[in-house]
Amino acid sequence: MPPEKTPLLVERDGAIATLTFHRPESLNAIDVPMAQAFLQAMQQLAADATLRCLVLRGAGRGFMAGGDLATLAADPVQGAADLLGPLNQAVELLAQLNAPVIAQVHGAVAGAGLSLMLQADFIYAAEGTRFNLAYINLGTSCDVGASWALPRRVGLSRALEIAMLGETLDCAEAARLGLVNKVLAAELLSAGVEQLAQRLANGPTIALGHMRRLMRAGLEQDLPTQLQAEALAFGACARTQDIRDGIAAFQTRQNPVFQGR
To answer: Going by DSSP bridges, is the β-strand pair 130-132/122-126 parallel, antiparallel, or unpaired?
Structure first.
């Protein structure tokens, strides 16, 4: 398939992978081929031990307008099943990565686009980006993990407000609520994300993977369970080369050079 017709572009720069949702003529609305391509890409990345950071972004005028309404309009029940099957599998794989995930967003971020954005560990937005969960305006509840991720980002009260009122948020409000980590001028967004991605890719990848999973799990487990999970994760990190390199660098007052293993 020629690149201009590919619904998802996969690029690699060393240990950093970038997935670009690529239906710019439709504001990257997710149709079934894009959902399936996303799952296929995540299956490949989940099996790649050399991956140390993943960036999600959208082509054209916006990050993503949501699910493809033409797919849903033809048969809402079957259309939802065809979209959510691969999307949910892809999100589960995304959550299990050791590699940290960055969402680089601009323009419109709505519906499933906002849901996908929320699965990232870091969210960098261009000035002028607009956010709307949007589902309620179509007469439906949310999907792709929004109900799991949004309260963790902004708290339950704000999550209910965003989800149930269906209002558009600008960048300033999104930053104030903690919906995004950083807002940058549009011309500086790519460079800012690249700098963060390189920093994360140079980190202790296995430890970062345990950290991203522990932080999420800690919001729903009691303290004894979480302490046990932390001990198991620390034990796994204690068997890595990275902890040896980190301790040695600390003892000699040098900057650590992690290999991600």
So the answer is: unpaired
Residue 239's domain comprises 205-251
The percent of the chain in helix, strand and coil, each rounded to the nearest 5, is: 55, 15, 30
Q: Mean pLDDT over all residues of the chain?
A: 95
Residue 256 lies in a domain: no
| DSSP 3-state of 130 | strand
Q: Percentage of the chain surpassing pLDDT 90?
A: 93
Residue in the structure block whose two tokens are 């080369």: 241
CA 218/CA 227 separation, integer angstroms: 9
Secondary structure of residue 204 in the 3-state scheme: coil
- Interval 128-186: pLDDT, tens: 999 999 999 999 999 999 999 999 999 999 999 999 999 999 999 999 999 999 999 99
| Same domain flag for 79 and 28 | yes
CA distance 199 to 53: 9
DSSP letter for each residue of 149-197? HHHHHH-HHHHHHHHHH---B-HHHHHHHTSSSEEE-HHHHHHHHHHHH
Residue 198: strand, helix, or coil: helix
CATH at 184: 3.90.226.10
CATH number of the domain within which 224 lies? 1.10.12
Q: How many domains does the chain have?
A: 2
pLDDT average, residue stretch 79-97:
95
